[in-house]
Amino acid sequence: MSLVPKDDKVLQEILQAAREIFSKFGLKKSTMEDVARSIGKGKSTLYYYYSGKNELFEAVIKDELDKHIKNMQRAISNASGPLAKLKALFLERLELKKQLLNLGQVVQQDFFDNFETLLNIKKELEITQVGFVKEIVREGIEGGEFRNLSEEDITLFSYWVVAGFGGLDHPVYTSDCLKHSDVFTEKVTGFILYGLKK
Amino acid sequence: MSLVPKDDKVLQEILQAAREIFSKFGLKKSTMEDVARSIGKGKSTLYYYYSGKNELFEAVIKDELDKHIKNMQRAISNASGPLAKLKALFLERLELKKQLLNLGQVVQQDFFDNFETLLNIKKELEITQVGFVKEIVREGIEGGEFRNLSEEDITLFSYWVVAGFGGLDHPVYTSDCLKHSDVFTEKVTGFILYGLKK
DNA sequence: GACTATTTGACAAAATTAGTCTAATAATCT
DNA sequence: AGATTATTAGACTAATTTTGTCAAATAGTC
Fold first, then answer.
1. Is ipTM beyond 0.90?
2. Using CA of residue A59, residue A60, residue A61, residue A63, what is the dihedral sign?
3. Which of residues 23-52 of B touch strand C (CB under 7 A)?
4. Which of residues 36-55 of A touch strand D (CB under 7 A)?
5. Is nucleic acid strand C under 7 Å from A52's C-beta?
6. What is the pLDDT of residues A59-79, one digit of tens each?
7. What residue ranges define each of the domains in chain A, with the CATH number in brackets?
Protein backbone atom coordinates (compact mmCIF):
# COMPACT_ATOMS: atom_id res chain seq x y z
CA MET A 1 0.00 0.00 0.00
CA SER A 2 2.83 2.38 0.76
CA LEU A 3 5.29 3.28 -1.93
CA VAL A 4 8.48 2.56 -0.05
CA PRO A 5 8.10 0.64 3.18
CA LYS A 6 11.70 1.24 4.08
CA ASP A 7 11.58 3.21 7.25
CA ASP A 8 8.98 1.46 9.30
CA LYS A 9 9.27 3.94 12.11
CA VAL A 10 8.25 6.89 9.96
CA LEU A 11 5.59 4.80 8.31
CA GLN A 12 4.00 3.98 11.63
CA GLU A 13 4.34 7.55 12.76
CA ILE A 14 2.44 8.75 9.70
CA LEU A 15 -0.24 6.10 10.11
CA GLN A 16 -0.76 6.96 13.74
CA ALA A 17 -0.87 10.68 13.08
CA ALA A 18 -3.24 10.17 10.18
CA ARG A 19 -5.53 7.99 12.25
CA GLU A 20 -5.77 10.69 14.88
CA ILE A 21 -6.30 13.55 12.46
CA PHE A 22 -8.87 11.65 10.39
CA SER A 23 -10.65 10.60 13.56
CA LYS A 24 -10.79 14.17 14.72
CA PHE A 25 -11.77 16.02 11.56
CA GLY A 26 -13.00 13.35 9.19
CA LEU A 27 -11.46 12.75 5.80
CA LYS A 28 -12.76 15.86 4.09
CA LYS A 29 -11.66 18.43 6.61
CA SER A 30 -8.32 16.80 7.32
CA THR A 31 -5.38 18.00 5.28
CA MET A 32 -2.07 16.38 4.56
CA GLU A 33 -0.53 19.47 6.09
CA ASP A 34 -2.38 18.68 9.35
CA VAL A 35 -0.93 15.19 9.41
CA ALA A 36 2.57 16.32 8.52
CA ARG A 37 2.57 19.10 11.08
CA SER A 38 1.45 16.76 13.81
CA ILE A 39 4.59 14.63 13.39
CA GLY A 40 6.83 17.61 12.77
CA LYS A 41 7.63 16.79 9.14
CA GLY A 42 7.07 18.32 5.74
CA LYS A 43 4.08 17.33 3.67
CA SER A 44 6.38 16.00 0.95
CA THR A 45 7.54 13.30 3.31
CA LEU A 46 4.03 11.95 3.40
CA TYR A 47 3.96 11.83 -0.40
CA TYR A 48 7.24 9.96 -0.38
CA TYR A 49 5.54 7.12 1.51
CA TYR A 50 1.98 7.35 0.24
CA SER A 51 0.94 8.36 -3.25
CA GLY A 52 -1.99 10.48 -2.11
CA LYS A 53 -4.40 11.49 0.60
CA ASN A 54 -6.90 8.79 -0.30
CA GLU A 55 -4.18 6.19 -0.33
CA LEU A 56 -3.13 7.23 3.14
CA PHE A 57 -6.70 7.04 4.27
CA GLU A 58 -7.06 3.54 2.81
CA ALA A 59 -3.91 2.50 4.58
CA VAL A 60 -5.31 3.73 7.87
CA ILE A 61 -8.53 1.81 7.30
CA LYS A 62 -6.71 -1.35 6.28
CA ASP A 63 -4.41 -1.11 9.26
CA GLU A 64 -7.39 -0.74 11.52
CA LEU A 65 -9.22 -3.71 9.96
CA ASP A 66 -6.14 -5.91 10.18
CA LYS A 67 -5.90 -5.18 13.86
CA HIS A 68 -9.52 -6.07 14.36
CA ILE A 69 -9.28 -9.31 12.43
CA LYS A 70 -6.43 -10.27 14.71
CA ASN A 71 -8.52 -9.32 17.70
CA MET A 72 -11.39 -11.43 16.42
CA GLN A 73 -9.07 -14.37 15.95
CA ARG A 74 -7.70 -13.99 19.44
CA ALA A 75 -11.11 -13.54 21.03
CA ILE A 76 -12.40 -16.69 19.39
CA SER A 77 -9.33 -18.68 20.40
CA ASN A 78 -9.75 -17.59 23.99
CA ALA A 79 -13.39 -18.58 24.23
CA SER A 80 -14.71 -22.05 25.13
CA GLY A 81 -17.53 -23.53 23.16
CA PRO A 82 -19.38 -22.25 20.12
CA LEU A 83 -21.75 -20.03 22.06
CA ALA A 84 -19.00 -18.14 23.77
CA LYS A 85 -17.04 -17.94 20.54
CA LEU A 86 -19.95 -16.52 18.61
CA LYS A 87 -20.53 -13.97 21.32
CA ALA A 88 -16.90 -13.01 21.37
CA LEU A 89 -16.95 -12.60 17.61
CA PHE A 90 -20.02 -10.47 17.78
CA LEU A 91 -18.62 -8.21 20.47
CA GLU A 92 -15.44 -7.72 18.54
CA ARG A 93 -17.46 -6.86 15.46
CA LEU A 94 -19.23 -4.17 17.46
CA GLU A 95 -15.87 -2.83 18.48
CA LEU A 96 -14.88 -2.61 14.85
CA LYS A 97 -17.96 -0.60 14.16
CA LYS A 98 -17.08 1.85 16.91
CA GLN A 99 -13.62 2.32 15.52
CA LEU A 100 -14.92 3.02 12.05
CA LEU A 101 -17.30 5.59 13.48
CA ASN A 102 -14.32 7.10 15.15
CA LEU A 103 -12.60 7.54 11.82
CA GLY A 104 -14.83 10.41 11.02
CA GLN A 105 -18.10 9.47 9.44
CA VAL A 106 -16.75 6.79 7.13
CA VAL A 107 -19.02 4.04 8.28
CA GLN A 108 -21.71 4.75 5.76
CA GLN A 109 -21.83 1.86 3.37
CA ASP A 110 -22.01 4.07 0.30
CA PHE A 111 -18.97 6.03 1.29
CA PHE A 112 -17.15 2.83 2.03
CA ASP A 113 -17.93 1.49 -1.42
CA ASN A 114 -16.43 4.48 -3.14
CA PHE A 115 -12.96 3.18 -2.82
CA GLU A 116 -12.18 0.23 -4.97
CA THR A 117 -9.40 -0.95 -2.74
CA LEU A 118 -11.59 -0.46 0.27
CA LEU A 119 -14.18 -2.60 -1.44
CA ASN A 120 -11.59 -5.32 -1.75
CA ILE A 121 -10.69 -4.88 1.87
CA LYS A 122 -14.32 -5.19 2.76
CA LYS A 123 -14.66 -8.39 0.81
CA GLU A 124 -11.65 -9.74 2.59
CA LEU A 125 -13.18 -8.80 5.91
CA GLU A 126 -16.39 -10.53 4.92
CA ILE A 127 -14.66 -13.70 3.86
CA THR A 128 -12.62 -13.72 7.04
CA GLN A 129 -15.69 -13.32 9.19
CA VAL A 130 -17.52 -16.03 7.26
CA GLY A 131 -14.55 -18.26 7.94
CA PHE A 132 -14.76 -17.53 11.64
CA VAL A 133 -18.46 -18.30 11.79
CA LYS A 134 -18.05 -21.54 9.83
CA GLU A 135 -15.37 -22.67 12.19
CA ILE A 136 -17.59 -22.01 15.16
CA VAL A 137 -20.56 -23.78 13.63
CA ARG A 138 -18.51 -26.81 12.73
CA GLU A 139 -17.23 -27.00 16.25
CA GLY A 140 -20.79 -26.87 17.59
CA ILE A 141 -21.87 -29.64 15.25
CA GLU A 142 -18.97 -31.85 16.19
CA GLY A 143 -19.61 -31.19 19.85
CA GLY A 144 -23.25 -32.18 19.48
CA GLU A 145 -24.71 -28.81 20.38
CA PHE A 146 -25.92 -27.99 16.90
CA ARG A 147 -27.93 -30.08 14.48
CA ASN A 148 -26.05 -31.57 11.60
CA LEU A 149 -25.73 -29.36 8.54
CA SER A 150 -24.19 -29.93 5.16
CA GLU A 151 -21.14 -27.93 4.20
CA GLU A 152 -23.31 -26.00 1.83
CA ASP A 153 -25.77 -25.09 4.56
CA ILE A 154 -22.99 -24.07 6.89
CA THR A 155 -21.70 -21.70 4.26
CA LEU A 156 -25.14 -20.25 3.65
CA PHE A 157 -25.75 -19.82 7.35
CA SER A 158 -22.41 -18.14 7.86
CA TYR A 159 -23.03 -15.67 5.09
CA TRP A 160 -26.35 -14.84 6.65
CA VAL A 161 -24.76 -14.13 10.01
CA VAL A 162 -22.10 -11.92 8.51
CA ALA A 163 -24.75 -10.12 6.48
CA GLY A 164 -26.40 -9.36 9.82
CA PHE A 165 -23.13 -7.93 11.07
CA GLY A 166 -23.00 -5.73 7.99
CA GLY A 167 -26.55 -4.56 8.63
CA LEU A 168 -25.42 -3.19 11.96
CA ASP A 169 -23.30 -0.67 10.11
CA HIS A 170 -26.33 0.99 8.59
CA PRO A 171 -27.57 4.16 10.21
CA VAL A 172 -30.94 2.56 10.91
CA TYR A 173 -29.50 1.24 14.11
CA THR A 174 -29.10 3.98 16.66
CA SER A 175 -26.47 4.26 19.31
CA ASP A 176 -29.05 3.48 21.94
CA CYS A 177 -28.90 -0.16 20.99
CA LEU A 178 -25.16 -0.22 21.34
CA LYS A 179 -25.45 1.24 24.81
CA HIS A 180 -27.16 -1.93 25.97
CA SER A 181 -24.57 -4.09 24.39
CA ASP A 182 -24.88 -6.98 26.84
CA VAL A 183 -28.60 -7.37 26.32
CA PHE A 184 -28.25 -6.64 22.65
CA THR A 185 -25.52 -9.20 22.27
CA GLU A 186 -27.52 -11.89 24.07
CA LYS A 187 -30.55 -11.24 21.91
CA VAL A 188 -28.74 -11.24 18.62
CA THR A 189 -26.69 -14.28 19.54
CA GLY A 190 -29.95 -15.97 20.50
CA PHE A 191 -31.48 -15.17 17.14
CA ILE A 192 -28.45 -16.53 15.40
CA LEU A 193 -28.37 -19.74 17.37
CA TYR A 194 -32.10 -20.36 17.05
CA GLY A 195 -31.54 -21.62 13.60
CA LEU A 196 -29.01 -24.18 14.76
CA LYS A 197 -30.53 -25.84 17.79
CA LYS A 198 -31.27 -29.55 17.77
CA MET B 1 -23.16 43.20 15.88
CA SER B 2 -25.71 41.78 13.54
CA LEU B 3 -26.84 43.73 10.53
CA VAL B 4 -30.56 43.38 10.97
CA PRO B 5 -31.70 42.12 14.33
CA LYS B 6 -35.23 41.79 13.16
CA ASP B 7 -35.97 38.15 13.36
CA ASP B 8 -34.62 37.15 16.72
CA LYS B 9 -35.54 33.53 16.23
CA VAL B 10 -33.36 33.10 13.18
CA LEU B 11 -30.62 35.11 14.81
CA GLN B 12 -30.53 32.81 17.78
CA GLU B 13 -30.72 29.79 15.56
CA ILE B 14 -27.66 30.95 13.66
CA LEU B 15 -25.77 31.77 16.84
CA GLN B 16 -26.50 28.40 18.34
CA ALA B 17 -25.58 26.53 15.19
CA ALA B 18 -22.42 28.58 14.82
CA ARG B 19 -21.43 27.91 18.41
CA GLU B 20 -21.76 24.18 17.87
CA ILE B 21 -19.94 24.11 14.55
CA PHE B 22 -17.12 26.36 15.76
CA SER B 23 -16.81 24.26 18.91
CA LYS B 24 -16.55 21.12 16.84
CA PHE B 25 -14.19 22.17 14.08
CA GLY B 26 -12.62 25.42 15.26
CA LEU B 27 -12.89 28.65 13.34
CA LYS B 28 -10.59 27.77 10.49
CA LYS B 29 -12.11 24.43 9.51
CA SER B 30 -15.68 25.57 9.99
CA THR B 31 -17.43 26.95 6.95
CA MET B 32 -20.44 29.15 6.60
CA GLU B 33 -21.91 26.34 4.52
CA ASP B 34 -21.55 24.02 7.54
CA VAL B 35 -23.46 26.43 9.74
CA ALA B 36 -26.15 27.11 7.15
CA ARG B 37 -26.65 23.43 6.43
CA SER B 38 -27.02 22.62 10.09
CA ILE B 39 -30.06 24.90 10.38
CA GLY B 40 -31.42 23.97 6.99
CA LYS B 41 -30.94 27.35 5.35
CA GLY B 42 -28.93 28.86 2.55
CA LYS B 43 -25.57 30.43 3.22
CA SER B 44 -26.82 33.78 1.95
CA THR B 45 -29.21 33.91 4.89
CA LEU B 46 -26.25 34.02 7.23
CA TYR B 47 -24.82 36.95 5.29
CA TYR B 48 -28.10 38.75 5.57
CA TYR B 49 -27.70 38.76 9.37
CA TYR B 50 -23.95 38.87 9.75
CA SER B 51 -21.56 40.66 7.46
CA GLY B 52 -18.95 37.90 7.46
CA LYS B 53 -17.61 34.76 9.02
CA ASN B 54 -15.39 36.62 11.44
CA GLU B 55 -18.28 38.82 12.47
CA LEU B 56 -20.37 35.76 13.20
CA PHE B 57 -17.55 34.31 15.21
CA GLU B 58 -17.20 37.52 17.21
CA ALA B 59 -20.91 37.48 17.88
CA VAL B 60 -20.64 33.95 19.24
CA ILE B 61 -17.74 34.92 21.49
CA LYS B 62 -19.50 38.02 22.74
CA ASP B 63 -22.66 36.07 23.41
CA GLU B 64 -20.67 33.54 25.36
CA LEU B 65 -18.84 36.18 27.39
CA ASP B 66 -22.03 38.01 28.20
CA LYS B 67 -23.48 34.82 29.57
CA HIS B 68 -20.43 34.25 31.71
CA ILE B 69 -20.38 37.77 33.09
CA LYS B 70 -23.96 37.25 34.17
CA ASN B 71 -22.97 33.96 35.76
CA MET B 72 -20.11 35.64 37.61
CA GLN B 73 -22.44 38.29 38.89
CA ARG B 74 -24.92 35.70 40.08
CA ALA B 75 -22.28 33.51 41.68
CA ILE B 76 -20.89 36.43 43.64
CA SER B 77 -24.34 37.54 44.78
CA ASN B 78 -25.12 34.07 46.04
CA ALA B 79 -21.92 33.74 48.07
CA SER B 80 -21.46 34.91 51.65
CA GLY B 81 -18.32 36.76 52.64
CA PRO B 82 -15.37 37.86 50.57
CA LEU B 83 -13.59 34.52 50.66
CA ALA B 84 -16.51 32.64 49.23
CA LYS B 85 -17.13 35.37 46.70
CA LEU B 86 -13.60 35.34 45.48
CA LYS B 87 -13.69 31.60 45.17
CA ALA B 88 -16.95 31.73 43.29
CA LEU B 89 -15.51 34.33 40.95
CA PHE B 90 -12.47 32.23 40.35
CA LEU B 91 -14.43 29.09 39.63
CA GLU B 92 -16.61 30.92 37.20
CA ARG B 93 -13.54 32.30 35.50
CA LEU B 94 -12.26 28.75 35.06
CA GLU B 95 -15.57 27.82 33.53
CA LEU B 96 -15.16 30.66 31.06
CA LYS B 97 -11.78 29.30 30.13
CA LYS B 98 -13.26 25.89 29.45
CA GLN B 99 -15.90 27.35 27.22
CA LEU B 100 -13.36 29.29 25.22
CA LEU B 101 -11.30 26.14 24.80
CA ASN B 102 -14.46 24.54 23.60
CA LEU B 103 -14.78 27.12 20.88
CA GLY B 104 -12.00 25.53 18.97
CA GLN B 105 -8.55 26.65 19.93
CA VAL B 106 -9.34 30.32 20.27
CA VAL B 107 -8.05 30.73 23.76
CA GLN B 108 -4.59 31.67 22.73
CA GLN B 109 -4.03 35.25 23.68
CA ASP B 110 -2.46 36.19 20.38
CA PHE B 111 -5.31 34.80 18.40
CA PHE B 112 -7.73 36.57 20.66
CA ASP B 113 -5.98 39.85 20.09
CA ASN B 114 -6.31 39.62 16.35
CA PHE B 115 -9.80 40.89 16.38
CA GLU B 116 -10.16 44.49 17.22
CA THR B 117 -13.70 44.08 18.43
CA LEU B 118 -12.68 41.06 20.41
CA LEU B 119 -9.98 43.16 21.97
CA ASN B 120 -12.64 45.60 23.05
CA ILE B 121 -14.70 42.74 24.41
CA LYS B 122 -11.69 41.53 26.29
CA LYS B 123 -11.12 44.95 27.82
CA GLU B 124 -14.72 45.02 28.86
CA LEU B 125 -14.33 41.61 30.44
CA GLU B 126 -11.23 42.78 32.27
CA ILE B 127 -12.87 45.90 33.60
CA THR B 128 -15.89 43.89 34.70
CA GLN B 129 -13.75 41.39 36.52
CA VAL B 130 -11.72 44.13 38.16
CA GLY B 131 -14.99 45.62 39.33
CA PHE B 132 -16.02 42.33 40.86
CA VAL B 133 -12.74 41.92 42.69
CA LYS B 134 -12.80 45.48 44.02
CA GLU B 135 -16.29 44.95 45.33
CA ILE B 136 -15.19 41.82 47.13
CA VAL B 137 -12.11 43.44 48.61
CA ARG B 138 -14.05 46.42 49.84
CA GLU B 139 -16.52 44.13 51.52
CA GLY B 140 -13.68 42.29 53.25
CA ILE B 141 -12.18 45.53 54.45
CA GLU B 142 -15.47 46.81 55.79
CA GLY B 143 -16.12 43.46 57.49
CA GLY B 144 -12.72 43.59 59.16
CA GLU B 145 -11.28 40.52 57.47
CA PHE B 146 -8.83 42.42 55.31
CA ARG B 147 -6.36 45.12 56.23
CA ASN B 148 -7.26 48.64 55.27
CA LEU B 149 -6.22 49.68 51.78
CA SER B 150 -6.52 52.91 49.90
CA GLU B 151 -8.76 53.06 46.89
CA GLU B 152 -5.66 53.22 44.75
CA ASP B 153 -4.24 50.06 46.30
CA ILE B 154 -7.50 48.24 45.91
CA THR B 155 -7.47 49.04 42.22
CA LEU B 156 -3.90 47.92 41.83
CA PHE B 157 -4.58 44.70 43.70
CA SER B 158 -7.65 43.96 41.63
CA TYR B 159 -5.80 44.43 38.40
CA TRP B 160 -3.15 42.03 39.65
CA VAL B 161 -5.73 39.37 40.45
CA VAL B 162 -7.40 39.72 37.07
CA ALA B 163 -3.99 39.57 35.39
CA GLY B 164 -3.55 36.24 37.14
CA PHE B 165 -6.85 35.11 35.68
CA GLY B 166 -5.59 36.11 32.26
CA GLY B 167 -2.38 34.16 32.82
CA LEU B 168 -4.44 31.02 33.21
CA ASP B 169 -5.42 31.34 29.58
CA HIS B 170 -1.86 30.84 28.43
CA PRO B 171 -0.90 27.36 27.22
CA VAL B 172 1.76 27.08 29.92
CA TYR B 173 -0.94 25.74 32.19
CA THR B 174 -1.85 22.22 31.30
CA SER B 175 -5.20 20.57 31.69
CA ASP B 176 -3.81 18.52 34.55
CA CYS B 177 -4.12 21.53 36.77
CA LEU B 178 -7.72 22.06 35.85
CA LYS B 179 -8.48 18.49 36.70
CA HIS B 180 -7.66 19.19 40.34
CA SER B 181 -9.75 22.30 40.36
CA ASP B 182 -10.67 22.15 44.04
CA VAL B 183 -7.08 22.00 45.24
CA PHE B 184 -6.04 24.42 42.55
CA THR B 185 -8.74 26.85 43.49
CA GLU B 186 -7.85 26.72 47.18
CA LYS B 187 -4.20 27.33 46.45
CA VAL B 188 -4.73 30.21 44.09
CA THR B 189 -7.31 31.81 46.33
CA GLY B 190 -4.84 31.45 49.17
CA PHE B 191 -2.13 33.19 47.19
CA ILE B 192 -4.53 35.97 46.37
CA LEU B 193 -5.67 36.46 49.93
CA TYR B 194 -2.19 36.31 51.38
CA GLY B 195 -1.66 39.86 50.29
CA LEU B 196 -4.71 41.04 52.12
CA LYS B 197 -4.55 39.45 55.55
CA LYS B 198 -4.32 41.62 58.65
C1' DG C 1 -52.31 44.47 -5.48
C1' DA C 2 -48.14 47.21 -3.71
C1' DC C 3 -44.49 47.30 -0.73
C1' DT C 4 -41.07 45.46 2.35
C1' DA C 5 -38.42 41.75 4.39
C1' DT C 6 -36.23 37.49 3.98
C1' DT C 7 -34.17 33.80 1.53
C1' DT C 8 -31.80 31.59 -2.14
C1' DG C 9 -28.96 30.28 -6.19
C1' DA C 10 -25.50 31.47 -9.41
C1' DC C 11 -21.26 33.19 -9.63
C1' DA C 12 -16.52 35.49 -9.25
C1' DA C 13 -12.63 36.40 -6.45
C1' DA C 14 -9.91 34.82 -2.87
C1' DA C 15 -8.08 31.28 -0.17
C1' DT C 16 -6.71 26.71 0.68
C1' DT C 17 -5.21 22.13 -0.48
C1' DA C 18 -3.35 18.22 -3.18
C1' DG C 19 0.23 16.92 -5.55
C1' DT C 20 4.77 17.65 -8.30
C1' DC C 21 9.52 18.21 -8.70
C1' DT C 22 14.01 19.65 -7.82
C1' DA C 23 17.40 20.67 -4.60
C1' DA C 24 19.03 20.04 -0.03
C1' DT C 25 20.20 17.02 3.49
C1' DA C 26 21.09 12.66 5.73
C1' DA C 27 22.57 8.01 5.64
C1' DT C 28 25.37 4.36 3.90
C1' DC C 29 29.15 2.28 1.58
C1' DT C 30 33.78 2.01 -0.29
C1' DA D 1 37.15 11.57 2.16
C1' DG D 2 34.14 10.95 -1.95
C1' DA D 3 30.43 8.48 -4.28
C1' DT D 4 26.03 6.73 -4.10
C1' DT D 5 21.52 6.15 -2.35
C1' DA D 6 17.63 7.41 0.58
C1' DT D 7 14.92 10.75 2.77
C1' DT D 8 13.15 15.31 3.49
C1' DA D 9 11.71 19.91 2.48
C1' DG D 10 10.52 24.16 0.00
C1' DA D 11 8.74 26.39 -3.97
C1' DC D 12 5.28 26.10 -6.95
C1' DT D 13 1.10 25.03 -9.98
C1' DA D 14 -3.35 23.22 -10.79
C1' DA D 15 -7.43 21.91 -8.67
C1' DT D 16 -10.70 22.51 -5.26
C1' DT D 17 -13.06 24.84 -1.70
C1' DT D 18 -14.73 28.88 0.63
C1' DT D 19 -16.05 33.66 1.19
C1' DG D 20 -18.79 37.04 -0.06
C1' DT D 21 -21.81 39.52 -3.69
C1' DC D 22 -25.98 40.45 -5.94
C1' DA D 23 -30.09 39.98 -8.40
C1' DA D 24 -34.10 37.35 -8.45
C1' DA D 25 -37.37 34.61 -6.11
C1' DT D 26 -40.21 34.03 -2.31
C1' DA D 27 -42.61 35.20 1.93
C1' DG D 28 -44.88 38.41 4.91
C1' DT D 29 -47.64 42.56 5.80
C1' DC D 30 -50.87 46.13 4.82
1. no
2. positive
3. 28-29, 36, 40-45, 47-49
4. 36, 40-45, 48-49
5. yes
6. 888 888 888 888 888 988 898
7. 1-51 (1.10.10.60), 60-194 (1.10.357.10)
